[in-house]
Amino acid sequence: MKHDPVDVLIIGAGASGAAVAWSLAETKMHILCLDQGGWMNPAEYPSTGRDWEAKFYGDWSTSPNVRGRPEDYPINDDNSPIKVVNFNGVGGSTVMYTAHWPRLHPSDFKVKTLDGVADDWPIDYDALTPFFEENDRMMGVSGLSGDPLSPLTHPRMPPQPLGLSGPLIGNAMNKLGWHWWPSDTTVATMDYEGRARCINLGHCTPACAQGAKASTDITYWPHAIRAGVEVKTHCRVREILTNEHGMASGVVYYDKDGVEQFQPAEVVIIACNGVGTPRLLLNSVSGRFPNGLANSSGLVGKNLMFHPYAQIYGFVKEPTDSNRAPPTCLWSKEFYDTDVSRGFVRGYGIQFGRGAGPVFEAVASEQKGILPWGADHHRVFRKLNGHRLAVSAICEDLPEEHNRVTLDPVLKDSHGIAAPKIDYTISENSRKMMDHGLARGREILEAAGATDICMNNPIPWGGWHLLGTARMGTDPARSVVNEWGRSHDVKNLFIVDGSVFVTSGGVNPTSTIQAIALYVADQMKQRLANLFD
Amino acid sequence: MSAANELTSLQRDDLQTIAAMIVPASDEYKVPGADDPAIQADMLATLSRDAALVTHALDHLAHLAGKPLAELDTAQREAIANEFRATGGAAAATLVRVVLQCYYRDDRVLSSLGLELRAPFPKGYTLEQGDWALLDPVKARAGNLR
After folding, report:
1. How far away is chain A from the Cα of B8, in angstroms, using its nearest Cα?
2. Which of A2, A272, A357, B10 is least surrounded, with the fewest CB atoms within 10 Å of its CB?
């Protein structure tokens, strides 16, 4: 079935799709967004039930392969030590994230110039500054201005309370003389734009029943829809078609009943994340684009960056916040910048974890061998439960072409569309960085008096940040999109998600992804008269 | 077919026996073991997507034991349990997780831990502000942002 053409078709209603839709809405163009998932129902979120922790291992797992909701597509990540985690639905992975909200640093945009590795971005931090600010206003950010080692931000809400865990971490960091600071988060610490303040449900990552955590289904989308943007849910795009001029003509998708549809469009914007976007481009083959759409460089799917997480944790005598607080509240940038004496280039941010709930603690500690079976189980569990502190080094992953997303020759989703396959190895530079992070983490935990120290190196289900697989650049031979997000090959095709990252920085990327989406939208608005030139 | 019916009588017996080995009852802490009938019923009623792996784990356990686990003496059971943990892979890990996730949501167990018997939402929890003066040393150090 063929529909009337739209001016702009956005594929994906997550972090970047929502931002670009909202920004473009003021043009009054006919904008349609297709998402393979549906609208979320907070009444069904895990923290509403007594089995809230158990759901994390099933219907609310961070892994689409475990979760297996109809909205999810399978991912073959057998050949990767880091497994992909995501969420599919309106809001995308902002429904299921920790709301930790750092930005890339100015130095992150010029790593070639500063450190002689990878490539500089074609844009710099200053180009994104107004869009970081606009995005922070839309998402609603809490935090404390004045961090001496982070880009200056202006959170509109006060930081999360330190609670019980914060002072334990802060004192340890002060003993070591190392930087720490309350993290910017998209957890509302006061009522904000229709969102109720955080009441410390604790189990923030798999969706916030209170609505205090910003996800784009409750931030951007209500505004975008009021401004005229249309969202169609449970519509999975199979491929982007092109016309005789080499321009995108629209998309083929399966509707909620599984019926194949064609939606024509003047402009197509992809916002499917660093795995979904290359998958879609590689599935969009034609005689004109035999290696996939927008892939004359051969770089679609290559240079996948994850941010390997090196996590170390231990148990203190004092009670910690356990599950009774948002999981992260503090960060450190002590080891963010390159210091070649460490044996690696670039660096890592540190996220501190406040603790865990009883089921998670029991399961994780049993698996690590520190919680015994038998009579001593109860004594040991009482020593561990409610006493956990965690330190995670989020390591800058540098782009390497052999780390890539391709199409699996066998695995398919429920509509018969080829699933993505991940081939990824952790580089020597990243390994050294992770080891450094673990050693520093151990010092922090020991300064806090922690014992029974364990580590996850890497966190296996830690592939939250899906970056680099359709990189931005000025050279069509070395990049997939130009410096304002337009495909070099297909002049009415844009990409606005984490795929366009040139390098990854050492911080959670969602703030920067959305700032880039707003920046691309702004560039489009400025160039509407000659958008395809 | 309900999850309870997905396990045979022998499998249910072995599940109960191994659960008691993982978390036995304790007079000291005034808690039931994971073999408690109510906790076992919770496991069976909520096996759901874990049923296949738990069944596989119990088959493996039965293979190792050669007879109902409860009929072995203590030393034999412990030897079998050690081998089960060493060789059971993802299935064994799933079985242990199912036992623990049902045990640590039982009212009697949570009460013993001093935890409230409720879902986090809608009441939430109160968090102390803490002493923000802890940041003074950080503020005092000069920053050098690149």
Report:
1. 24
2. A2
Q: Which residue is listed with tokens 């391709």?
A: A406
d(CA A169, CA A513) in angstroms, rounded, equals: 29
One pLDDT digit (tens) per residue for chain A, 533 residues: 679 999 999 999 999 999 999 999 999 999 999 999 999 999 999 999 999 999 999 999 999 999 999 999 999 999 999 999 999 999 999 999 999 999 999 999 999 999 999 999 999 999 999 999 999 999 999 999 999 999 989 999 999 999 999 999 999 999 999 999 999 999 999 999 999 999 999 878 889 999 999 999 999 999 999 999 999 999 999 999 999 999 999 999 999 999 999 999 999 999 999 999 999 999 999 999 999 999 999 999 999 999 999 999 999 999 999 999 998 889 999 999 999 999 999 999 999 999 999 999 999 999 999 999 999 999 999 999 999 999 999 999 999 999 999 999 999 999 999 999 999 999 999 999 999 999 999 999 999 999 999 999 999 999 999 999 999 999 999 999 999 999 999 999 999 999 999 999 999 999 999 999 999 999 999 999 999 99
Residue-number span of the structural domain to which B101 is assigned: 3-116
* Residue B89 covered by a domain: yes
For chain B, the domain total comes to 1
What pairs with residue B72 in β-bridges? none
The contacts of residue A209 (CB under 8 Å, 6+ apart) are: A42, A43, A45, A46, A47, A48, A201, B120, B121, B122
Residue of B nearest to A320 (CA): B127
- Identify from B54, B80, B101 which residue to disrupt to test chain A contact, counting A C-beta atoms within 10 A and taking the largest count: B101
Chain B nearest CA to A362, separation (Å)? 7
Rounded to two decimals, what is the model's pTM? 0.97
- B96, exposed or middle or buried, with CB in 10 Å at 0-12, 13-18, 19+? buried
Q: Tell me, yes or no, whether B129 lies in a domain.
A: no
Nearest by CB: A373 against B21, B49, B103? B21
In a domain, B130, yes or no: no
Chain B, nearest residue to A44 by Cα: B121
ipTM above threshold 0.90: yes
**A35: closest CA of chain B, how far (Å):** 26
Which run of H or E residues covers position A328?
strand A328-332
**Mode of pairing for the β-strands spanning A248-254 and A236-242:** antiparallel
Asked, for residue B131, whether it belongs to a domain, the answer is no
